[in-house]
Amino acid sequence: MARVSKLQEREQGRTSVHQDVDATYHVFEIAGEIYLQIDTYGSPERAFPAKVSQSLQFGPEGIDALRKILSKLP
């Protein structure tokens, strides 16, 4: 699991579209601060497809950074 507090843009030479997987999100509050957690799950080909594969938590700073990025998208 990782908590994201800031996001920096990075140019990539080669990009590709990844395989679709299931994902869930959870919004919670601790000590008056709001957090967003996104969990992705293994693809059907994995040994344990229903198991959480990755978790990203966005605290207040990360949520603000994500909002700024999303507001710039067409």
UniProtKB/TrEMBL annotation:
Q: What protein name applies here?
A: Methionyl-tRNA formyltransferase
This chain's source organism reads: Thioclava arctica
